[in-house]
């Protein structure tokens, strides 16, 4: 399998996955032209579209793609997404024939209430729930919902490749540095990201093991993040600590 992040809009990634026979699926096509160009350039046939949540930067290209490709659309149960060929609940499996792939659906409320993630073949498509060194804003869900969602994602195997919906890693890294100034893994990851971005390369995918070592939103149990939480008066309550982190990130200008 070949896993390719297609940069789109300001800072989105549309994830393209294809096999050696040219059978492809895309995740969260916010625009169509970027996908069409990639399909043509690589000689691929589109077989399926997967959506994580209803925001326009993730579904804006679906109608134009469907006008040219007769393919199923896998989507969360949400009336704000008008194209679900198949609407998915937590725990459902998608047995994709071409490219050959089994994906499991994980309901991850927080950024939006109906947000889902897809995991299979060692790959996690998590939309705007988990970002590298960060997490999505809480537009609809509560901190308790989001931390439960992130816990489920963080429990996947460490070699899982995390495929996020946005290239936010550098800014997230500046925030994370302030939370855990002595985290050597975080410093290494930031240097790696800086080099990749300077060369015009994506910071993604990243392994889940790396995120567990560096992402403050996955580390509310760590001594360093708990220490930061004590400065916010939320040390004993993991959800309150998470909420304080998320609030601090919302107000972070760095
Ligand atoms: Zn979103
Ligand atoms: Fe988004």
Structure description:
- It is a single chain.
- The chain is an alpha/beta fold.
- The chain has one domain: Metallo-beta-lactamase, Chain A, CATH 3.60.15.
- It has 9 helices and 14 strands.
- The strands form 3 sheets. A 6-stranded mixed β-sheet has the order 1-2-3-4-5-6, with helices on one face.
- A hairpin with a 4-residue loop joins strand 7 and strand 8.
- Helix 5 runs antiparallel to helix 6.
- The N and C termini lie far apart (37 Å).
- Bound molecules: zinc ion and fe (iii) ion.
**What percent of residues are in strands?**
15-25%
Helix/strand-derived category reads: alpha/beta
CA radius of gyration: 18 Å
Task: Give the overall shape, derived from the CA principal axes.
Answer: globular
N-to-C span: 37 Å
Outline the low-pLDDT stretches.
none
CATH architecture name = 4-Layer Sandwich
Per DSSP, the total helix count is 9
Tell me the domain tally.
1
Question: Biggest β-sheet: count, sense, barrel?
Answer: 6 strands, mixed
Which sequence of SSEs, written as H and E, runs from N to C? EEEHEHHEEEEEEEEHEHHEHHH
Mean pLDDT: 96
Please tally the β strands and state the result. 14
Helix content: 25-40%
CATH-assigned homologous superfamily: Ribonuclease Z/Hydroxyacylglutathione hydrolase-like
Would you state the CATH class? Alpha Beta
> How do the strands of the widest beta sheet line up side by side?
1-2-3-4-5-6
- Which ligands occur here? zinc ion, fe (iii) ion
